[in-house]
Specification:
single chain, six-stranded parallel beta sheet
Length: 355
Amino acid sequence: MRTGPAAFREGAAKDTCPADLTERHEAELNPTQITLVVSPRQDMVDLLGQGDHILRLIEQQFAADISVRGNEITFTGDPAEAQAVAALFTELIELAEQGQKPTPETVDRAIDMLKTGEASPTKLFSDVILSHRGQTIRPKTAGQKRYVDAIRNSTITFGIGPAGTGKTYLAMAMAVLALKNKDVGRIILTRPAVEAGEKLGYLPGNLYEKVDPYLRPLYDALFDMMDIEKSQALTEKGVIEVAPLAFMRGRTLNDSFIVLDEAQNTSPEQMKMFLTRLGFGSKVVVTGDVTQIDVPAGTSGLRQVRDILNGVQDVAFVELGSKDVVRHKLVQRIVTAYHTYEEARAAATEPERER
């Protein structure tokens, strides 16, 4: 008797995978045909989408023919294509068994991961960092998975990438998790207060009120992961501290999870000052986007630190790219377009520099 979410209809070999697949090679026939038998426990509507919209999305991405009959899905086509789409459905079936219904977003990312071989979608999507008010926070791309694993395994992690790649959000989630697990005694969130057209001295309010707008994105992320009342109570007790980078000078930060956001706007001196605040039992995550620097050219501490600390033990650098953007698809296209434009401009100005 078959067990598990799916199995091949005939001659399935034993395997620990969620769906046992066997190729049926017929000497006189080319292409290859693979049939996947889905467990009766699995709702085919959840797997294929309302009106088969998930199935149609997958058909657009693969050349193999996909046919569904009852709880059997058959893939026919080039051997590599048939294997690839069968592997995709195997991953989607296991995700559905875990209660994660396939969505166009998860299917797109699963296809990218399987095509590049960077990660298993099942392992990635099952890596839940936090759950709050029915919302789960987990890495959604292979790059984000590398980033989260680097934070777990390194004392200092640099997450460098464009807007929308989840650098700050995932770092905040890991910080809240560490506090909940009592791995650290406090969370410290900081970013440089770079003036954008207005001098701080001319802004209304006391010092905290002047710098509050610069720190608001950190509060917004924190409130996504913790009840506002609880986070405010922890802030009043000093367990959670949100402060501008200048407030870090002269301190030694022990037993803390420290996140430095928007690090591309630090000076080399500020970056050195911040990194040397590290105390015993602490973990540091530094995030930034070197394509959005608001300080004078050539003075970004984040650009310099990669050359200085690259290769130092217990320090990890994770580069995130346009494929790791998890906002609207148009944001991913905008990031890619800007990257292409900047590369072309750099290539055009290179001959002038040589002359």
